[in-house]
Amino acid sequence: MQMLSRLASVITFLLLVSCKAVVEERMEELCRVEAGQRVYEAIRVPASGYEKWLLGQSIPTGKPDGSWFTRFGDDEYRIVHTRTYLVGRHSTGYEHEESLVRNHAVAYRWSDKKVLGEEVYFAYSGGTRFTFGFQPHGASCPAFSRGLAHLVFVPQTQP
Length: 159
Description:
Elements lengths: L1 H32 L2 E4 L3 E4 L3 H6 L1 E4 L7 E5 L4 E11 L11 E11 L4 E12 L12 E4 L6 H5 E4 L3
Parallel strand pairs: 2-9
Antiparallel strand pairs: 1-7, 3-4, 4-5, 5-6, 6-7, 7-8
C-alpha cells in the first residue's frame, strides 16, 4: 500500500513537471521567433529634463484586457501596453494556475499615429502546486537592459 502511494506521488510529480516544461518550452520558442525591441524613429528630447520627461503618466484604458498607456511630452507621444494570456487566465501565480503571457508595447506619435518603436516579451508563472509558502516558479524572456521609452526617446546632445 505504501509503495502504491509513493508511485502515485511520483507520477503526480512527473505530470506537474512535464506540464511546466511544455509551457516553458513554448515560451522559449516564442521568444526566439517574436520577442525583442525595435525602434523605427528616435525622438530627441532635451538632455536637461530627460529623466523627468521619461516618467510619463500611466493611464488604464478601461478595456477588459487590462491594457494601459503612458503619456509623454504634453500627450504628444504615447506608449500603449497590452497583455494577452496565451495559457491560463489572469492570475497572480498564487492560485497555482500556470499562465503564459505575451506583453506588447507600441510607442506612437499621437498626432499622426505613427509607430516609433515596439517591444514584445513573454512571461510565465505558476504551474507549481507545492511552493511551501514561497513565490511560485516564473520566468520571462528576453531580458531588456533598457525599456522602450529609453530607446525611442533619446537625450539630445549639444553639437
